[in-house]
Amino acid sequence: MSRLVASAVVVSAVAAAVLAGGTPAAAAPPPGACQGTPDPAREPVTELPWAQQLLDLDRTWPHSTGAGVTVAVVDSGVDADHPQLRGKVLRGQDFFHVGDLPGNFDCVSHGTAAASIIAASPAPGIGFRGVAPDARILPVRITDRELSDDGQPTPINPEAVGQGIRYAADHGAKVINLSLSGHGNYRAIGNAVAYAQSKDVLVVAAVGNRADNGNIASFPAQYDGVLGVGSLTITGERANGSQTGTYVDIMAPGEDVLAATRVGGHNFWAGTSFATPFVTGVAALVRSAWPKLTAPEVAARILATADPAPGGRDSETYGAGIVNPYRAVTEDLTDAAPLMVPPVVEPPPDHAAMREADWWADTSAEVKIGAGLVVLAIAVAGVLGWFLPRGRRRRWYAGRAALPPATPTRQEPPDQIFLFPAPAAERHRR
After folding, report:
1. What is the pLDDT of residues 151-201, one digit of tens each?
2. Picking from 131-145, 239-253, 325-339, which range would have the lowest pLDDT averaged per residue?
3. Residue 163 and which of 23, 147, 346, 371 are 20 to 30 A apart at CA?
4. Disordered: where is this region (predicted)?
């Protein structure tokens, strides 16, 4: 069955359900919308994930939570029924199937995971939460399978991606998250990115996971003005697959990071696709805290406030460094040139002070010598005081030392040396 025919079947099934009086679940996939069986819900994870610990979001939220900012997730859809996303996911649009279907359902959890990293609300007993929990999510569905960002021939239609980006720009998105990449430079996508930028939308994209193939092209991260995001491990180093190149602008956690799954629960994910929404969430924080900044100014702020990375600043491996939400939101920046450090000028010598220092040095030496002579005199007087009286008594004749006895006197050990009773044969001797 062709994709066009399958799409028509989906729309017909939904219409039939509505006419029959049945209303599909708010975010359940329409009948036949998923090529396979939708991913099941997962168990919730209660622990605070390492990525959220690294970014220290509790420190940032008093200054910005992303309120008032709409973020588009151009992906596999977003499940609006997940407990941590409920109430913040807009209807959106499906550009994969033909017809007027929403984008607020997901078959494979990829888009739901990205959206949750951006905007999941805190929940009692759950450590995971999104970077900008008060941001709104505009779901734009362009595929019904997990996105491939390995650079191989993509299963995603570039026309659908381009339409999705334009739709997001026309429907209030201030930031667009593209957790996808490839080595093909498609005109439909490039033109759509330029269109979004003309409407002051910041586009954030994954740099890809094909580092083993060398320094290769990566689109859409390579387009001018797009923030390209690489992946970090828990050790703060670049993940093995995270691509390197001039399109790497900044790094974020992306290896074994926790995120939501469709319907409910959480799962661990890896790849630059999941590092990207961390930076997207930070962009939402900045756009909320600094609403007058343009998209390029928001990007410049995020890069300027990044923490240092092992590769040094502005490297093709780590870009500007590691994204820092708190600094991006709170620091005051200036475009003024750095002040020049004045040259060091040695003051002219103070001759009076030098003479005084020399006097004190000479005086100190004289005092030390005088004290030594006094000590020597006392020692000599002591020796003479002991020696002269004895010399007079002997009339200065030499004395004789007492000779030791011919047979040394035997010294018996004290009784206390016998710490244990003597043997029976010897007891009488004691």
Report:
1. 454 468 999 999 999 999 999 999 999 999 988 999 999 999 999 999 999
2. 325-339
3. 23
4. 23-43, 404-430
Which tokens is 286 given? Answer: 């900045």
Q: Which one from 39, 64, 75, 81 is the annotated catalytic residue?
A: 75
Catalytic option among 64, 79, 81, 110: 110
**CATH code, domain with 325:** 3.40.50.200
- Has 106 been annotated as catalytic? no
Instruction: Tell me the average pLDDT across 66-95.
Output: 97
Selected catalytic residue, list 64, 121, 242, 273: 273
> By residue range, what is the domain housing residue 102?
42-330
Q: How far apart are CA 235 and CA 118, in angstroms?
A: 22
Residue identified by tokens 């040695």 is: 346
The answer to whether residues 248 and 294 touch, using CB atoms and an 8 Å cutoff, is: no
Q: What is the pLDDT of residue 415?
A: 43
Domain count, the chain: 1
- The dihedral sign for the CA sequence 43, 48, 51, 56: positive
- What is the Cα–Cα distance from 238 to 230, expressed in whole angstroms? 8
What are the φ/ψ torsions at residue 277 (nearest 5 degrees)? -65, -20
Amino acid 419: pLDDT: 42
> In this predicted structure, what is the pLDDT of residue 409?
55
* Residue of higher predicted confidence among 409 and 162: 162
Cα(355)–Cα(110) distance, rounded to whole angstroms? 80
**Using CA atoms, how far apart are residues 29 and 11, in angstroms rounded to an integer?**
12
Q: Quick check: is 110 catalytic?
A: yes
- Give dist(CA 333, CA 103) in Å, integer: 38
Annotated catalytic residue 116? no
Main-chain dihedrals φ then ψ at residue 38, nearest 5 degrees: -60, 145
pTM: 0.73
Which residue in the block uniquely carries the two structure tokens 């929990």? 133
119 closest CA partner among 186, 154, 70:
70
* Pairing verdict, β 266-269 and 257-260: antiparallel
- Identify whether 160 is part of a domain: yes
Transcribe 40-88 into DSSP letters.
Answer: PP-----SPPHHHHHHTHHHHTTT---TT-EEEEEES---TTSTTTTTT
What is the distance between the alpha carbons of residues 44 and 123, in angstroms, rounded to a whole number? Answer: 11
Indicate whether 421 pLDDT > 70: no
Asked if residue 18 is part of any domain, the answer here is: no
Looking at the predicted structure, is the pLDDT value of residue 26 above 90?
Answer: no
Tell me the H-state helices in 211-349.
Answer: 272-289, 295-304, 325-330
